[in-house]
Amino acid sequence: MLPRDLSLTPVARTGAVLPVADPRQQAFQRALATQLGQSMQAEVLSKLSDGSYVVRVADMAARMPLPANVQIGNQVPLTLVAIHPRPTFQLATAQGGQAFAEAGPPLPEGASLQGSPLALLEGKEAAALTRASALLAKAQVLSTSLGADGAGASLSKAGKVLGDVIAAASANGAPQTAALGRTPLLGAPGADAARIAAALQQGMEKSGLFYESHVAEWAQGTRAQAELAAEPQARGMAPPADPATAQLINLQLNAHEQARVAWQGQLWPGQEMRWEIARDAPDGGAGGHADEDGASNSWQSSLTLRFGQLGEVAAKVVLSGGQLHIRLDAPAATKALLEAGSERLGDALAAAGTPLNTLAIHAHD
Fold it and tell me: Using an 8 Å Cβ cutoff, are 101 and 65 in contact?
């Protein structure tokens, strides 16, 4: 067992592992591939000069960073949550928390401890792996419940791929937070509101975030196959563990989990834009509009644009219970100009059938 005074202080990133393309690393990954999501015990064999440990796990020797004060001879409970880019294990701490540690085969005799390090993962990397481990645990429970008294139960291939995808997305530097538009939505500035709205809708629809639901609509005959061809998945994507593909799949998982989507790209050539849409969870209160199931929801849309003369202008639109509320944030020099046009905005929204309830304009530096 881990000692009671164990802390989560990360091991310093000073050691090295074999490159992920090294044959010994690949052999190590293949040996663990069938055990993704499985729990196992690791015996601590020795401690190396860079602070990492050599452990015996699944009848193999592996090098792994562990929390401070682990003693040689300890039995450490592990759960394998990812294979790529390196095998990564979830481990319990003495305080009942969770940590995630990368692992690799021991260095060849005489090799120096320099290069790409093993590490205890934390922050955004650990958060992504926490989602992966939760999904793997749910998959295991479902697999067991479907088996005869648990006999022959195993983690599904989809569950294993999902764990690798989330790990690959978190390992590729900073996580991607929005679907990326590769081409401008409009050919030039000056389009009317209807064309801009249609372009925004098309950009979000073709982002790839909703590809599976669009395939289902195509199968039911309600969506043309030509519409699918414009989405990233239909243009031929790399395997799921490829970083770019993993980032997109991770965005889809986040959208499903958080009821939030984001798009980033150019509205027209040279005009950068970030757009987010989110739905608040139903709370049954009076502040939201009623869905078919009687629950209430509030929709939020946030848009950020930078103009040559106006500077950066951010708009937040909230639709709740049939009421429309808008907040604008702009440079102080632009605030008066926006206030002068507020009446025109209210009239235009009323003419479109969505009266404006409140408009707040704030200045920022």
Answer: yes
C-alpha span between 323 and 288 (Å, rounded): 9
Q: Are residues 160 and 183 in the same domain?
A: no
Q: Which residues of the chain have pLDDT under 50?
A: 1-17, 115, 148-151, 153, 283-295
Can you name the residues that pair with 44 across neighbouring β-strands? 55
Query: Cβ neighbours of residue 96 under 8 Å, at least 6 residues apart?
Result: none
Would 266 be classed as within a structural domain? no
Q: What is the pLDDT of residue 12?
A: 35
pTM, two decimals, is 0.55
Last residue of a domain, one of 154, 175, 196: 175
Same domain, 147 and 207: no
Is 92 found in the same domain as 9?
yes
pLDDT reported for residue 10 = 38
Neighbours of 199 (CB within 10 A): 17
| End position of a domain, from candidates 175, 198, 230 | 175
Instruction: Report the b/e string of 233-268 with b at 16+ CB within 10 A.
Output: ebeebeebbbbebbbbbbbbbbbeeeebbbbbbbbb
| 238 shares a domain with 350 | no
Contacts of 177 (CB under 8 A, 6+ apart): 251, 262
270 is a domain residue: no
Consecutive H or E run containing 227: helix 225-228
pLDDT at 258: 84
d(CA 139, CA 100): 20
Range of the domain at 31: 1-175
Residues 87 and 66 in one domain: yes
Give all strands (DSSP E) within 179-335, no chain letters.
179-180, 260-268, 271-279, 289-290, 296-307, 311-320, 323-331
User: Is residue 159 located within the same domain as residue 185?
Assistant: no
Neighbouring C-beta atoms of residue 312, cutoff 10 Å: 13
User: What is the predicted pLDDT for the residue at 169?
Assistant: 65
- Among candidates 134, 94, 81, which has minimal Cα distance to 257? 134
